[in-house]
Amino acid sequence: MGDPAVTGPDSSEAELLTRVLSALLREDVVGLRTRSTPVHQQDGPWLRLSTGPDALLLPVAEDGFQCVYAARRPVLVRESDGLELTSYESVLAALRELADPEDRGGFDAFAEECRQTLATVRLHAATRAEVMARLTDEPGLGGGLVYDTLAARHDHPVYPTARGRSGLTEQQLRAYAPEFGPRFALRWLAVPRGEVTLAGKLPEFWPTLDTLGLPRLRDTHVTLPVHPLTVGALPAGTVLADRACLDVVPTLSMRTVATVADPSVHLKLPLATASLGLRNKRTIKPGTLVDGAVGQRLLEAVIAREPRFRETVLHADETTYAHAGHELLAVLCRRYPAGLDDCTVVPLAALLAEAPDGRLVIDGLADRFYGGDPLALLDAALTLLFDWQTTLFGYGIALESHQQNVSLVLRPGGLRLLFKDNDGPRVNTARLDARLPGPWAFDDARVLGTDDGPIADVFTTITVHLCAGAYAFGLPRYRRALLDLVRARLTEAVDRLGGDAADVLRAHVLGAAELPVKAMVSAGTLLSKERSGAADINKHYTSGPNYLLPTGSSA
């Protein structure tokens, strides 16, 4: 390949660079958004960022989804000589020079993320026909794993390098990543019994030490599963069984696997890798297991007081787990509710993915369940989603239930929602204590607070942006209608909620001039926690336009 400033990028790199530039603009990296001035040229609007004696020019288009503009073409132009920077390496190198010296290492790390992502995107393109030919259309939780495979081949609505996984080879991706739908057996550890904390009852299929060929340890040790990719990173003091045992299939999150023997049982296992940012480790802190169980009990208590959700809002059971006090020695045993065998279960993250027939997943689902009308499908989903999430807001609760953690449960005549991963909520104890006094013993001190601000931020960035707005902007043919629908259904849910909680949502969401926007690249990779000030890299924000306002859309 020639000089990237001379030879244009291929389509995969062009699409990646466009997403990267849009994300950096949205997050105002090196002042790309707030320090730039608009310039109008023959081909459309540009932003001009002064670099002292020179300037960088970015072609943009009006957008409106979390940022006024998005990158229009995959290029930065150096003003002095017209040099076009058309590779992620050259673009990030130019922006790196504008960063504070202590932040420049983050640009190098992000360039590596881009490299990994580009290799993965190309691999996805090269293997599409092969993988699609293997996929079958079956109901139930097991059949629903097909949609995880499709979603894993689709880009994240916000994070530009989401398909990259730190440090994994092509062979490892093919063997263990959800986009390939592989089947593999878990490895197992024998861990001294006294070092293991166990909550709940493990499944009947859990292998014994005898089964694993370690009978001499049956009186002193217990078994913990380990992902094959984690075997090389295990701490001392554990015994790795030679025998692999228990066939599994990866889900969209990769570190969570569905058991082939019982697809209603998923095991969440630590991975010694990162995704959605260098600092977004895929290990499992023991405290998050505690918080997932507490979160689930809290949601059960809400549903007990709100009976209209008992049949329509489903939750996986996350009260069974084990750990040995180490981020690589842990497992969550997630059990899904019964009665889903005749249903089609689809994560929201799959709706805009390309199905084997070349259409979007949502179009095929609309044909099967909503008379060919994707708007009707989204209307049903958003009506229930907003009703549930605003109800929780009234209790002072906001869930981190993004598009990977919420699934549609479909069958003729009805739609339900299925939630998982309850370990990262934000809770306003002033509201919660008035309605469901605790104690609610979350391990993570960041969960509990005494004001509505953090709750409204999570509600907006997760429920509104990722589970609603992303579909309005991701389906251009329906954008105006979907923005109207999102606004209408959220307004109805807020009105139904009533009281001062509704006033907060009107002020902070429906009527706000700007909305909080996740700054995931900055907090996850570009900046250290000390530099970003992010207490939680998944809850670090900038701001963007409010597309919920009647004039907030640039569609």
TrEMBL record:
Aerobactin siderophore biosynthesis IucA/IucC N-terminal domain location: 153-353
A Pfam family it matches: IucA_IucC
Origin: domain of life: Bacteria
InterPro entries documented for this protein: Aerobactin_biosyn_IucA/IucC_N, IucA/IucC-like_C, LucA/IucC-like
GO biological process, one term: siderophore biosynthetic process
Pathway of action: Siderophore biosynthesis
A molecular function GO annotation: acid-amino acid ligase activity
Matches recorded under PANTHER family: L-2,3-DIAMINOPROPANOATE--CITRATE LIGASE
Designated name of the protein: Siderophore biosynthesis protein
